[in-house]
Amino acid sequence: MSWQKKVLRVNLTDRTSQVEPLNMEWAHDYIGERGLATKYLMEGMDPEADPMGPDNMLIFATGPLTGTMASTSGRYAVVTKGPLTGAIACSNSGGKFGAELKYAGYDLLILEGKADAPVYLHIVDDKVDILSADELWGTTVWHTEERLKEIHSDPQTKVASIGVAGERGVYYACVVNDLHRAAGRSGVGAVMGSKNLKAIAVRGTVGVTVDDPKTFMQVVKETKAALWDTDGRRELAEQGTNAMIDSMQEFGGLPTNNFQEVQFDGTDKINPAAMVTPNEHGHVNLLTNKACFGCTIACGRIAHIDEEHFSIVNRKEYWHASGGLEYETAYAFGPVVGVDDIDALTFAGYMMNEHGMDPISFGVTLAAAMELYENGALTKEQTDGIELKFGNAEALTVMAEKTGKQEGFGKELGLGSKRLTEKYGHPEFFMGVKGQEFAGYDSRALQGMGLGYATSNRGACHLKHDTFAEDMEDQTGQGKAQPCKDSQDRTSVIDSTGLCLFTTAAWGIEEFRVQLNAACDYDWSEDEITKCGERIWNLERMFNLKAGFTKADDTLPKRLLETPAPSGTAKGKVCQLDVMLPEYYDLRGWDSEGVPTDDTLGRLGIS
Amino acid sequence: MKIKLKTGGLLGEYLPPGSTANRGELEVKEGATPADVMQQLGMPIDRPYLTGVNGELITKDRRGSFVLIDEDELSLMPPLKGG
């Protein structure tokens, strides 16, 4: 067991739903969550379809370990064709929603078509209703979630929803669940909006069943103990992911002012130490940490903003605690836009959660707009009277809100940085891959990261591979292809289990395999589980190739390939993608154009 | 001789008394290497810490041979990932 062995398929055009058995052959080959949803997507839609059209599929997918007693078992993925990139999108979230969907009895929720008016989906176990969302349309994520709990008189209902950003097609709109957890990247929220689907409210009472409870309890006990004992786990719990900002600053890999610099003078004002240091009013930003469902790490931050800060001084609706800074938000509202005002950064984070937007893409898009402004390609008249200069905290807070509400220049920022920079004549200011903006690592300092960015199937992403250890020991392109490829395959497995990537602070692939084998009525060998990861990666690649991507899209901006890092440990270096990419293709079993060979596809069982 | 120390994350716990906000100073013997300093601070020396001296990356294989001099700034950052 452990899989529910059921798929809920909803056709929004017809307003019908049906339950079908999970294809168990696919489940064995693709595990669950990211991998299994990719298989259903590939089999169910044309990769050339318009991502914002009714022919795009939107899949919410749990993994076999979602909702079990394994640590971090709250994960689910949203898989679709992403509008930001035109590539496959796979956005992963925590919170409690994923486990609740599993408890309602489903491995996958597949959404097809488009409703003719705003609707939301209400699921209570096998009772599935498609209901009018007229009163919710145009409102925030935060309002929607609370209102749905009121409407259905059930505070235990778990909600995943979109804000106005998703409704109006912001290319990087996300799906937010449990108020401040998000399937954040690639615009999966915009796909939801394009289907006129405001929210999914779910309540589950079915529970989950594991195949071998005694063994499962034993391996979970052992893996939890191993996780608990690591410095990495304690670091994440006590400092949060933002501890990375000091490391990147020291390393010279911290993208600053739209990647024009690699170190930022203001890190001491926005790092974990700053989050717990009283300001001049005695206000302390950080309140506590928070865990997702079943998590024994608790990396999440809960913060609040100084009530005297300009962003909320007369706005009591924001005088409350909410999601605080993590590394990517600290980077995207801080160094990359040159802002060091911790409350401004926190407010921008509130806006992302309230209106449903990806903070990385928003921040880097704002950074591109600032570079356009400073180069005269944008004027103050075009930016609603705001001085869109690096370091302007007001520009950050105002534009975060305007973009969320799709007002004024916020509509332009909703295009994402690729479309924005092309529109205003400077495509060279776009900092990303395949249309998606970079996370907070400069690949002139972290070479393996550059290869991971260039080859990530969902566009620039730091979470689909793991070459941090190699990058911190060597700043050339030599020897990076193998760990990049291996970690991409490994991550494909982890993302398909229903558990969190951060458990790799202690666990290798074997810890995931033993938990899967105890929970599922199927046993993967070491070779099989490795092959599952490689199969998932290659299937995503095939989706993108069929969607029209080519080798030419596996690249980086000239700024990283030709302009040397101006400071830091990598001063004078550029990213050596030309060294890494051919070796990577070869290791993958792809031809020189980046296309998987027939032998590779045959070995992996991909037709 | 005296060197400056800069740490990140929880590595600040290894700094000598009187240090603040991941910054500190330490008396070390002449000819000390980063590995010697890590040992003096009680840190495990085999971990993949990001190690730098005055902004220069010191890879793991150089931690035991790179000789520090007076007033050098030694940075020791945790091996984080993700975010």
Topology of helices and strands:
The complex is a heterodimer of chains A (607) and B (83).
Chain A: E1 6-11, E2 16-21, H1 24-30, H2 33-44, E3 58-62, E4 76-81, E5 88-93, H3 97-103, E6 108-112, E7 119-124, E8 127-132, H4 141-151, E9 158-161, H5 164-167, E10 175-177, E11 181-183, H6 188-194, E12 197-203, H7 213-228, H8 231-239, H9 244-251, H10 272-275, E13 286-290, E14 300-303, E15 322-323, H11 327-333, H12 342-355, H13 359-374, H14 393-405, H15 410-413, H16 417-423, E16 432-433, E17 436-437, H17 447-455, H18 468-471, H19 481-494, H20 509-519, H21 526-547, H22 558-562, H23 577-588, H24 598-604
Parallel strand pairs in A: 1-6, 7-12
Antiparallel strand pairs in A: 1-2, 3-4, 3-6, 4-5, 7-8, 9-10, 9-12, 10-11, 13-14, 14-15, 16-17
Chain B: E1 2-7, E2 23-27, H1 34-41, E3 50-53, E4 56-57, E5 73-77
Parallel strand pairs in B: 1-5
Antiparallel strand pairs in B: 1-2, 3-4, 3-5
